[in-house]
């Protein structure tokens, strides 16, 4: 999956059925003989010349969404089998990469991740219609299910450790061992500087967030010559490895 991060540093992710509620839910696209009559009747609910901007995928069916998506459009849900796509209508199939909208996209995904387990999608993931969206999603269905199970009730935390001078290899090993004890999984990022001792993302259960943060504080005190950059919590971008591409 293509994903993106807009992280602010702080140191110390079938049948279509409508629902009613604070969120809107729609069904399917232009008349399709393989669809039920009820689904085809609902196609008139889709505004003309509007595309599907997707923020993420979840298996949660009961959501209270009290905020809007991009272009101040309401966030809606589309149920495909036992999955739910979170999207809003968007005026173009190929959004321009603008910093303001990219940051707003990240903010929206962060809000969604605070409420439910979600596979976050990258900025600019837009589909021409529901049939294309459904086809793309179902082609990755096994991976989507597996990933939702992996990241359920978890969040992503980032750690960068910068050394002022040479640090023994066992120092990095000890830091990783301590943090791995409190996480489900970790992934190493790019080493973009020789001074970077480690650059890792950790998948942590939400109920261990405070404990993980305390451990980072302990390590900072233990190694005063190292600079710890601690960021998050974020949606589990780094632990989603599914290629869901926008299409038209």
Protein model, in words:
- The protein is an alpha+beta fold.
- It has 2 domains: 24-151, no CATH class; 154-239, Ribosomal protein S10 (Alpha-Beta Plaits), CATH 3.30.70.600.
- Helix content is 28%, strand content 24%.
- It has 6 helices and 10 strands.
- It has helices at residues 37-41, 99-115, 130-139, 141-151, 169-180, 209-222; strands at residues 24-25, 51-58, 76-80, 83-90, 119-120, 126-127, 154-163, 185-188, 196-205, 226-234.
- Strands 1, 2, 3, 4, 5 and 6 form a 6-stranded mixed beta sheet that branches. Strands 8-9-7-10 form a 4-stranded antiparallel beta sheet, covered by helices on one side.
- The longest helix is centred in the middle third of the chain and has 17 residues, at 99-115.
Low-confidence stretches: 1-44
> How much beta, percentage-wise?
15-25%
Radius of gyration: 21 Å
Task: Report the biggest beta sheet as strand number plus sense, adding barrel if it closes.
Answer: 6 strands, mixed
Structural class: alpha+beta
Specify the oligomeric state.
single chain
Global morphology: elongated
Number of domains: 2
Helix content: 25-40%
Tally of alpha and pi helices? 6
Spatial separation of the terminal alpha carbons:
17 Å
Quote the average pLDDT: 82
What is the chain-wise order of helices and strands? EHEEEHEEHHEHEEHE
The total strand number stands at: 10
Which descriptors apply to this entry?
elongated, 4-stranded antiparallel sheet, alpha+beta, 6 helices, 248 residues, 24% strand, single chain, 2 domains, Alpha-Beta Plaits, 6-stranded mixed sheet
